[in-house]
Amino acid sequence: MFIVTAKEMYDIDKFAMQEIGLDGKLLMENAGRAVAEKITAMSSKQEKICVLAGAGNNGGDGFVIARTMMDQGYHIHVLQVVPDSKIRGDASFHKRIYENCGGSLSLFDGIDGTEVLDADIIIDAMIGIGVKGELREPLLSLVSLINQQTKKVISVDVPSGLPADEGTVEFSAVEATYTFIIGAPKISAFLNHTSPYYGTWELVSIGLPKKAFQLSTSKSIWNETNVRDCFPGRKPDDHKGTHGKGLVIGGCTEMPGALSMTLKAALRAGAGLITGATSEHVINRIASTNVEATYAVLSTTDGFINNDSKVNVQDYDAIALGMGMGRKAFTSELVRDVVSEANCPIIIDGDGLHHIQPYLTSLKRRKSPTIMTPHPREMAMLLGANVNEILVEPFRYASEFARKFDVYLVLKGMYSIITSPEGKQSVNMTGNPGLAKGGSGDVLTGIILAMIMQRQDMFDAICNACYVHGKSADLLIKHQHSHHDLLASDVIDGIANVYRTIS
Predict the structure, then answer these.
(1) Which pLDDT value is given to residue 433?
(2) pLDDT digits (tens, 9 = 90+) for 396-413
(3) How many angstroms separate the CA atoms of 147 and 139, rounded?
(4) Are 319 and 302 in contact (CB under 8 A)?
(5) How much of the chain exceeds pLDDT 70, in percent?
(6) For 470-483, what is the mean pLDDT?
(7) For residue 259, is pLDDT > 80?
(8) Residue 111's pLDDT is what?
(9) Rounded to whole angstroms, how far apart are CA atoms 202 and 184?
(10) For residue 429, is pLDDT > 90?
């Protein structure tokens, strides 16, 4: 499933019409009928429905929805929120058909909102992705009136007033109960400050060719179909060496559990061999609960790993670095040396991100892949930015960072964004608020470590790991736990449930 900006969506429509030969009126008909089918499935013919129709494609979709539902016996009225002079092109064509079929229509004069107040269901087809700047009167007051109601509000493509793209903070928009997105989800469906306006959203297909999306966007949603298409299997003659020898460096006296969870998650996710490199004190505390792992003792100062530690990084197929390591200055050189000396993929997480920040430019010199897994606050630290800036434009910041430092980036959040060094991006939608617990990130790092040592593309492996991590939490919430009591260690145990669903 592709993700698009407003411009990319316009380019896709243009390609479909000019290069493929699809008529715009047909696409509008397809869109309106597809949305109408969804609405009829959640409404009754006893309910009064008001369609708010604006100019452009969104308004045209609204006229098709109204005509389609009217023909099926629904009580429909269209409130046109712009003057007749602004209804042009394909939208004007479908308005004329609606009226020729006897459809009920009135113009919104900016004062009387009777149609909205009397309706049981409001269908918002006013603006879509065409919004530019903040709403002006009379639409601003109309949106305010809609948001004051407790009625079911259904938006078409994008809630009116809501920007389709990232980067905008000031706006007024319809707060939809449901949104039926046309063609492809827009970026704002995945941002913390804009996604709530969509309510529950669902994608409807209108016949746009896949080729048009492939030529226009490099962003997509990573879903179960993607996982099934590339998930690595096991052969009868496989052995422990086949599935990777991984090293996990981290832990300190204050945070031994972080290392423990990464080790256990990597093993549960399918790694063949895993070694934990940490202090002797940490090993003594965690070895009895991680009996399948082996260990390497590192030297410490006051319970924290120091730079006197020598790690033979050449013996491993992949390395995870930083979990529970602490942020003592004397550890930074160890992180720098491991990253520069290792000839295998490295995952940098947690405290490792703080240690590598002064040496970011050195990442471009690595011959093997580097994976970094910051949450927004850590991303802000890496960039020297404000965390709110990251949250408002996560796709842009992630893409620019991954390209600049030649890394794979997992920007964690409600919707985690996985970015390749070339700028390809996928969004993971599995997971739930139960993951808002200490240790969840350590578990994800362990799963990534296991995945990148299997027979699959690096980007696919990282996306699969994020999917498995979130899906484990989803299945646990569905069958055993709640958002309140779920622990990171539960997520490790739930990996098996995910593998059974996709194998």
Answers:
(1) 97
(2) 999 999 999 999 999 999
(3) 12
(4) no
(5) 99
(6) 97
(7) yes
(8) 61
(9) 10
(10) yes
Annotated binding residues for AMP, written as ranges, equal 412-416, 441
- Tell me: pLDDT of 112 over 80: no
Q: Which residue numbers belong to the known binding site for (6S)-NADPHX?
A: 57-61, 128-134, 157, 258, 324, 375, 442
Rama region for 234: left / alpha / beta (φ>0; ψ in -120 to 50; rest): beta
Annotated binding site: 57-61, 124, 128-134, 157, 160, 258, 324, 375, 412-416, 441-442
CATH topology assigned to domain 2-217: Rossmann fold (3.40.50)
Ranges for all domains in the chain classified under CATH 3.40.1190.20: 238-502
Q: Residues forming the annotated binding site for K(+)?
A: 58, 124, 160
Please say if the pLDDT value at position 117 is more than 90: no
Q: Compute the C-alpha angle 166/445/463, nearest 5°.
A: 50
Distance CA 190, CA 204 (A): 17
Asked if residues 267 and 292 have their Cβ atoms less than 8 Å apart, the reply is: yes
Residue type, 44: S
Q: Which residues pair with 291 in a beta bridge?
A: none
The class of domain 238-502 in CATH terms is alpha beta
User: Which residues make up the CATH 3.40.50.10260 domain(s) of the chain?
Assistant: 2-217
Both structure tokens of 312: 């033979």
Q: Which two tokens stand for residue 435?
A: 């993951």
For residue 114, pLDDT beyond 80: no
**Angstrom distance (rounded) from CA 138 to CA 135:** 9
